[in-house]
Design a protein that fits this description.
Helix content: 10-25%
Oligomer: single chain
Structural class: alpha+beta
Number of strands: 14
Shape: elongated
Strand content: 25-35%
Number of helices: 4
Distance between the termini: 37 Å
Order of helices and strands: EHHHEEEEEEHEEEEEEE
Radius of gyration: 20 Å
CATH architecture of the largest domain: Ribbon
CATH superfamily of the largest domain: Umud Fragment, subunit A
C-alpha cells in the first residue's frame, strides 16, 4: 500500500465518496459531488480524474455511480490513526428512531495519534443512562463490530420490530423470547419475540474536558 499526497479538495472528495459508500451503499454522482463541494460539475470531474490518476479512486466503465476507493492506497487522513463511520445516535434509555449521519468519528482527532487495525466497525453516540452501571454513560461513544449474531450477555445494538434501535445486553430466554437488559434499575428490560442484531459493542470512548 502507498500513501499519497492529495490537495484539500481531492481529500474532501475521497472522504465524501468513502462516506457515501459506507452509509448509503453507493457513490455520489459528479453533480452530487459538485453540490457538496460548492463547485461546478466540470471542476468536480477534474478532481476525480486526478484522484483516479493517483490511484486513490477507480472507476468501472459504462456503469452509473461507479466510483470506488482503491484498496492499495492510504490517503493522508489515515496516516496518523483510525476512523469509523459515525452512523447516528443510539438509545440507551427508551428506544429512538433510527438515524444515519454522513459523518466520521476520528480517533486521532479526539485522543491524539492512535494506531490500530480496522475491521468492519462503526461508532454510535450513546443517548441515555440505561447502561450506566456497565460504565456506558450518556454522551459516550461505543465502537460496534458489525455482526448479525450475539452470545448471551453481550452488549448489542438491536433493531426492534417497530423499527427503533437500542443498546442493551442481550439474553435469549427459555421460552424463546429475547430480553434486552439495561444496566440501571431505573429502566425495565425490553422483552421481544424477535429482534435484529446489528452489531456488538467492543469498546467505549469518553472525552473529559
Amino acid at each position: 500500500m502507498s500513501t499519497l499526497n492529495l490537495t484539500p479538495k481531492q481529500l474532501r472528495i475521497f472522504q465524501l465518496i468513502r462516506q457515501w459508500r459506507s452509509t448509503r451503499g453507493y457513490s455520489p454522482t459528479m453533480q452530487e459531488l459538485a453540490d457538496e463541494l460548492g463547485v461546478s460539475k466540470v471542476t468536480a470531474f477534474g478532481h476525480v480524474e486526478a484522484l483516479i490518476g493517483k490511484g486513490v479512486l477507480r472507476r468501472d466503465a459504462n456503469k452509473a455511480r461507479s466510483l470506488a476507493i482503491a484498496s492499495d492506497a492510504i490517503p493522508p487522513d489515515e496516516e496518523a490513526g483510525v476512523s469509523f463511520p459515525l452512523m447516528g445516535r443510539i438509545a440507551a434509555g427508551y428506544p429512538i428512531e433510527r438515524a444515519q449521519d454522513n459523518e466520521c468519528l476520528r480517533l486521532d482527532e479526539m485522543f491524539g495519534p492512535v494506531r490500530g487495525q480496522k475491521g468492519d466497525m462503526f461508532a454510535l453516540q450513546v443517548d441515555g443512562d440505561s447502561m450506566r452501571d456497565e460504565g456506558i454513560l450518556d454522551g459516550d461513544y461505543v465502537i460496534v463490530e458489525r455482526r448479525s449474531t450475539a452470545r448471551n450477555g453481550e452488549r448489542v445494538v438491536a433493531l426492534l420490530p417497530n423499527g427503533e434501535t437500542t443498546l442493551k445486553t442481550i439474553f435469549t430466554q427459555r421460552d424463546g423470547t429475547i430480553r434486552l437488559q439495561p444496566s440501571n434499575p431505573d429502566f425495565e428490560p425490553i422483552i421481544v419475540s424477535d429482534c435484529t442484531v446489528q452489531g456488538v459493542v467492543i469498546g467505549v470512548m469518553r472525552r473529559y474536558r
